[in-house]
Amino acid sequence: MDMEKRAEAQPPSSSKRLVITQVIEMTGLEETAVLELISMEWVKPATTGDGHYLFETRDLYRLNKLSRLCKDLEITTTGGSIIVDLLERVERLESRIEEMRKLI
């Protein structure tokens, strides 16, 4: 699907989901990078019947974090995705530790 068709695609007005052109604009990532992350299943947007991707707010949050890391550290999208995954894992583990401390 070409960029022109993607630009025309819009989620339903009541939707909180974003189309790929909005995600690209909001994150500063290249379209090829976003498509690569989709193919890696790092983000898993829903798809419409006509093949347009619809991203959730949590996808935008992760992609923004990835974009900042890649720019700040001058690393590849793949490297950034690994770092974001590790940071999220640390956050989950810290949350579990805090829950366990409350039980003591």
Care to describe what's here?
- This protein has 104 residues and is mostly helical.
- The chain contains five helices and three strands, in the order αβααββαα.
- The protein has helices spanning 3-8, 20-27, 31-39, 57-73, 77-103; strands spanning 18-19, 46-47, 53-55.
- Strands 1-3-2 form a three-stranded antiparallel beta sheet.
- Helix 4 crosses helix 5 (77-103).
- The longest helix is centred in the C-terminal third of the chain and has 27 residues, at 77-103.
- It is globular and about 55 Å long.
- 22% of the residues are buried.
- The model has no long low-confidence stretch (mean pLDDT 90).
Helix content: 55-70%
Which segments are poorly predicted (pLDDT under 50) over 5 or more consecutive residues? Answer: none
Quantity of strands, as a count: 3
- Tell me the series of helices and strands, N- to C-terminal: HEHHEEHH
